[in-house]
Specification:
Elements: E1 2-10, H1 16-26, H2 44-49, E2 56-64, E3 67-75, H3 83-91, E4 95-101, H4 108-119, E5 123-129, H5 138-149, E6 157-158, H6 167-177, E7 190-199, E8 203-212, E9 215-216, E10 220-223, E11 229-231, E12 234-238, E13 242-245, E14 247-248, E15 253-257, E16 271-274, E17 293-299, H7 308-323, E18 328-334, E19 338-345, H8 348-361, E20 366-368, E21 372-373, E22 375-379, E23 384-387, E24 399-414, H9 418-427, E25 431-439, E26 442-450, H10 451-454, H11 458-465, E27 471-481, E28 484-491, E29 494-495, E30 501-504, H12 505-522, E31 530-536, E32 539-546, H13 562-582, H14 589-594
Parallel strand pairs: 1-3, 1-4, 4-5, 5-6
Antiparallel strand pairs: 2-3, 7-8, 7-16, 8-15, 9-14, 10-11, 10-16, 12-13, 12-15, 17-19, 17-20, 17-21, 18-19, 22-23, 22-24, 24-26, 24-27, 25-26, 28-29, 28-30, 28-31, 31-32
Helix pairs in contact: 7-8
Length: 600
């Protein structure tokens, strides 16, 4: 029996999951009765938002020219924040199906995913999808694929994942054009772990791709990276229902259950081998994902270090980190919010999804601080420190230079919006690099921008400026020194660490003033006047004042001498003054989120 391993890759919403549904149906893996849309997106969040978050792998059988083929395929996410999931899936495959929407054409993520596949030496089959739509332009799009990606236009397969048209041709192309798994290079067992998740009843379920040798139930296995050993209790494949098998041979994908208690014992990218007869060297794994966005999570109802809330949050975060290897966390403490965790993410959508999964799957309520990016600080002694939180910045007297992360941004836009987008990038301190024509009406612009400038609302602005037709993809290219400063926010003369931010000197005053205006709206009036200040070092660069609530104490004096009124007003003033020194200002969570909104 021949084996083909491949991934389905594409831009967001170009039809990867629907195509996976069709492949499952046309190979009779799923009956008509069981079929439902986006069959493989089984997480509640995925079904609600209509996006794929976790890559899912499936094994199906298909007869082609009288020969039986075993097709192992992985449906991957399209969003830039989950590019790490895609890169892991591609390492376990020899081929990729690159899906392009026949109404939208080549988009930024299409290009990024195609490069990922090319870097992994995968054979690609370009598929032009959604040809049943009235606005479909398959021939034009096939030419776009050739111009932008260098894949011959005549190799494109036209299909509609919705109606099932062209699916049989695609299955034939998979069998004929994609290469079989490479020959085993050693007789020792080696399998690559490309994903894992935690099951409450069976412990950690590990997804593997066999490269050399074979595994059978009862084998004692060793994780080469972590060095732990386990006994295999169950082997299986998803077809798409979990189906137990006795052995897994070279080139196959499947799952392993070996009563592994904690996720710490499993590392994605590790190699599994036999304990009695281990392989000499592990398979090349993955680069560790590099977290770029950081924010703090605190239990909403507060919690002291012994408090149950922080323990619940810790448990929820630990469980989630088993299923998602690409976020990191460590404990922190803040004066304003108590004990919590500083978490690192690959991007803002990733952060959003993690927060929602914690609240749903972990059942905890969270207060989240505004996200920040990683900065590099070079001290006068020549040491380099990574700064994840503006509050961690040491005294400016020991700074030599502060560097910010720079991204290479690929933007695909219709020609008529190029001027607007160039202005937008210029305003965000972008540096123009190059420009490429994809088709008559669309071009790729390449810019280098500070990550801190695109993290909040750049994508929304891009979408609204291009009426939804612009798409972008970014990758981190390094760190660069600039005139950066830490802006402290003082409420009633006290600095609030959770609100401080790092900004470019030129925009610091504008951002500080904007933030104070937002805070003024969010913080309710107290019995005394509250000054809000933004300061760099000792210099105040902006100020707003929240007026005190006043009671009309002179209401009972009708007519009569003005000195009586004065006396009452002075008495009130003295009371307010005393209150100010002992009163504390309550800052609601909305105020912390106000930092996020950069405004126009």
């Amino acid at each position: 029996m021949q084996i083909r391993n491949f991934s389905i890759i594409a831009h967001i919403d170009h039809g990867k999951s629907t195509l996976a549904d069709r492949l499952l149906q046309s190979t009779s893996a799923v009956s008509e009765r069981e079929a439902r849309q986006q069959f493989l997106d089984d997480m509640d969040l995925e079904r609600e938002r209509g996006i794929t978050i976790k890559a899912s792998s499936v094994t199906v059988r298909h007869m082609h020219n009288g020969e039986e083929f075993m097709l192992n395929f992985i449906d991957t996410p399209g969003h830039v924040d989950f590019a790490y999931e895609v890169s892991r899936a591609l390492t376990a495959c020899e081929g990729a199906i690159l899906v392009v929407d026949s109404t939208q054409g080549v988009e930024a993520q299409t290009v990024a995913n195609a490069y990922l596949a090319a870097n992994n030496d995968l054979d690609m089959i370009p598929v032009v999808n959604k040809i049943d739509l009235p606005g479909a332009r398959p021939d034009e799009i096939a030419m776009e694929v050739e111009q932008a990606l260098g894949l011959p236009a005549e190799d494109c397969i036209y299909c509609s994942a919705k109606t099932g048209q062209g699916i049989d041709e695609l299955l034939s192309a998979i069998c004929d054009k994609l290469p079989p798994p490479r020959e085993a290079v050693t007789d020792k067992t080696r399998a690559l772990i490309f994903d894992s998740h935690y099951d409450d009843y069976r412990g950690v379920v590990v997804y593997i791709r066999m490269f050399d040798g074979k595994l059978k139930v009862g084998d004692k296995i060793r994780m080469m990276g972590v060095g732990r050993t386990f006994q295999v209790t169950e082997l299986g494949k998803y077809t798409p229902k979990p189906t137990k098998v006795k052995t897994l041979g070279p080139g196959e994908t499947g799952y392993v259950i070996a009563s592994i208690k904690t996720l710490k014992d499993v590392r994605v990218g590790d190699t599994i081998t036999l304990d009695i007869d281990p392989a000499a060297e592990p398979l090349p794994g993955y680069e560790e994902p590099h977290q770029m966005v950081f924010c703090d999570f605190y239990p909403a109802s507060g919690g002291d270090s012994k408090g149950s809330n922080i323990e619940e949050l810790r448990e929820a975060i630990e469980k989630l980190s088993l299923n998602d290897a690409s976020f990191t966390y460590f404990a922190v403490h803040s004066e304003a919010l108590g004990f919590g965790f500083r978490c690192g993410f690959l991007g803002l959508l990733h952060m959003d999804i993690i927060q929602e999964r914690l609240e749903r799957e972990g059942g905890v309520e969270i207060i989240q601080t505004a996200p920040t990016v990683t900065y590099e600080l070079v001290t006068t002694e020549g040491k380099t420190i990574e700064i994840h939180n503006p509050a961690d910045l040491p005294d400016p007297s020991i700074w030599k230079e502060l560097r910010e992360p720079i991204v290479r941004l690929d933007i695909i836009v219709p020609v008529e919006f190029i001027g607007d987008i160039m202005t937008l990038c210029g305003d965000r301190r972008g540096v123009y690099k190059s420009q490429t024509v994809i088709s008559e009406d669309r071009q790729i612009l390449i810019y280098e921008l500070p990550l801190g400038e695109i993290i909040y609302d750049f994508y929304d602005k891009l979408k609204s400026m291009t009426r939804g037709y612009g798409t972008m993809d970014y990758e981190i290219v390094g760190f660069r020194t600039d005139r950066l400063a830490k802006v402290d926010i003082l409420i009633n003369g006290q600095p609030v660490e959770a609100l401080s931010f790092i900004s470019h000197r030129d925009t610091a005053e504008k951002r500080g003033r904007h933030l104070l205006t937002r805070l003024k709206k969010e913080i309710s009036r107290h019995q005394f006047e509250i000054p809000l200040q933004a300061a760099i070092g000792g210099k105040v660069i902006a100020r707003e004042t929240i007026k005190s609530m006043g009671k009309n104490v002179t209401a009972k004096c009708y007519g009569g001498d003005v000195s009586r009124k004065r006396k009452l007003l002075d008495k009130q003033k003295a009371g307010k003054k005393r209150m100010k020194s002992i009163g504390s200002v309550e800052v609601p969570q909305e105020a912390f989120m106000a930092v996020l909104d950069q405004g126009e």
